[in-house]
Amino acid sequence: MTDGSEQTAPAVWIDALRFSWGRRAGFALSVPELCIAQRESVLLLGASGSGKSTLLSLICGIVTAQAGTVAIAGTDIATLSAGTRDRFRAEQIGVIFQQFNLLPYGSVADNILLPLRFAPQRRARTGDVRVEARRLCDALGLPPGLLDRPAGRLSVGQQQRVAAARALIGRPPLIVADEPTSALDAATQDSFLRVLFEQTQAAGSALMMVSHDERLAARFDRVLRLEDIAQTKRSAA
Ligand code: ADP
Ligand code: MG
Known about the structure:
By secondary structure, the chain is of the alpha/beta class. The chain has one domain (38-62, 81-223): P-loop containing nucleotide triphosphate hydrolases (Rossmann fold, 3-Layer(aba) Sandwich), CATH 3.40.50. The protein is built from eight helices and ten strands. It has helices spanning 52-60, 82-92, 108-113, 120-126, 129-139, 156-168, 186-203, 226-229, and strands at residues 12-20, 27-36, 41-45, 67-72, 75-76, 93-96, 174-178, 206-211, 222-225, 231-234. It has a five-stranded antiparallel beta sheet. It has a five-stranded parallel beta sheet with strand order 6-7-8-3-9, sandwiched between helices. Helix 6 (156-168) packs parallel to helix 7. The longest helix is centred in the C-terminal third of the chain and has 18 residues, at 186-203. The mean pLDDT is 93. Bound molecules: adenosine-5'-diphosphate and magnesium ion. Residues 52-53, 178 line the site of magnesium ion.
């Protein structure tokens, strides 16, 4: 992890990956190869239930494959113990969930700064954490003065911007977003994506976003379809 290879390694590299949720669940996924370069923005399209979130969970190391390799910034995550993998994920990946997963009673600032607790390198890159939280809010179009408000009191669009700030803080090499705009109306969706792209580029992070919405394609460096990069298998339980 410290031999310098992470400087040039792709943000994501997958080789001969095979994963199954287990025989009872009856869904299996295999990905022969997938490479996402540093700073690249990739949209992964696929129908509901096609396995997009499963693939993101594999990339984040939330679940582990039965065979093959998932390497993030040059590190094969299967070589890490569970605890090390959690810390590694906190350092390397900013995650934006479909339902935001904010702590509703925590302040906006608490929510944004949360990943830094588990990621000393991101913490070290951030400098004054309050100043950086305020800068991100401002860049993402959150009104000043929200920082000390409970996150649960914000509008849906504002909560999504808080989730984006939490993913971006400390400039992790990879931002992963699972259908992050599906709860937003069209106008909010558009402005959210614009600021997310600006800030992802400013942070120098790669972006992997999952959606079933083809209309988002034009914004990305590359568009992948799950059915083109993966084979999936479904069997009756
Ligand atoms: P998508 O994100 O494209 O809608 P998912 O990756 O969520 O698709 O789901 C793909 C398949 O995997 C579905 O058949 C789903 O039921 C199954 N699946 C998803 N998560 C789990 C889980 N935690 N346990 C068992 N099966 C799951
Ligand atoms: Mg999903």
